[in-house]
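Recap quiz, item 2
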Amino acid sequence: MAQSAVPATEASGITPISAKPLAPWAVFFGILMLVLLYFVGAEQGATALISGEGVHEWVHDGRHLLGFPCH
Amino acid sequence: MNSLSVRALLVRGMLAGLVAGGLALVVAYFLGESQVDAAIALEEAHSHDHGGGEELVSRTMQATGGLATGVLVFGVAAGGIAALVFCYALGRIGAFGPRATAALVAGAALLTVYVVPFLKYPANPPAVGNPDTIGRRTTLFFLMVALSVLLAVAAVIIGKRLAPRLGNWNASIAAVAGFVVLIGLAYAFLPSFDEVGKDVPATLLWEFRLSTLAVQATLWSTFGIVFGHLTERLLTPATRAAAPHTAGAMS
């Protein structure tokens, strides 16, 4: 990608956030956010954790207009 | 920087995502809803009913509350993930400040999470799509998203590795070219679906797909701008000498 244009020495004066404190946040919130995306984008479509059609019907228009395969 | 700034960045990412979702909702409502309605009218004219019998959620609710729930939750969740990616990318992808990094992350997200999968598996309005293939279509769509994101990450890493030898410009071109070739191969070898019925007007399909693209473009560009502004203020103290009340957020 275009942003891979990198000087060998980081002269920007920005200290990267080290991976250690970032990891727990990334894992916990990353998974939480993916679960939210799953419920908006795919629940009660190809797979269903909750039976019925309620979730699918409620987010139906959002799902179509966000570009997910819906039905 | 410690976990406090990760938290501060995550909160800002989700807020920026909410704002972006709000704007995308306006676009979705005014640009996309008329096509969804037209497609549903078409669907019902062929008595191919969706959901089976009783209407669980009324069309009005789907087009307002339901649409808002979907787009706003998507905005917040996507914003949160983008903020976490930003936390890792900042200072690692090159000599970019917070604002430029936010813009690059948002642009890369639009491209890899939406545009690249969309070119192979474009969005369809309600009247299009065979319910029997929903499983395969869903799997392949998310596979394409995952492939596109992983290849983009690989391209960034390889570009970084090549940079000392080829220079930034040529290394970037090589990385992007590699990405395009591999995505092209994925396009060529993954199965396609053509489930557009003869009675679906071409203009309806085209306008619906453009609307979904507009929704995503609005969402990610708004996110990039708002999140960039918030992070620049948070992480670059020099630029907010006039606003010392936010100084406590930096640690």
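Chain A is about 50% helix and 0% strand.
Helices of chain A lie at 19-41, 54-58, 60-65.
End of item.
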